[in-house]
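Hey, resending since the last one bounced:
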Amino acid sequence: MEAAYIYLNEAAELEGIRYNTMAQKLIRNKERYQTKIEKPEGGGKDRVLISVTSLSKAARAAYKERTKLQVADI
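The structure tokens again:
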């Protein structure tokens, strides 16, 4: 199974920190985080996606709970 990737702003929310703080952590600890770059179809800036497995244990649990609730709502 392939690891799930989420946008950097969602990762920051799950970690309980600001977007800029998460971006700085990513820059300072590149080897700790698994990332992908997504190029928007309509042009513009590239979007950074981060692997859920790279996040803290608490953030992974919050992500799991969030996805479980989304599936239950469908």
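Strands lie at 5-7, 35-38, 47-51.

Sorry for the duplicate.
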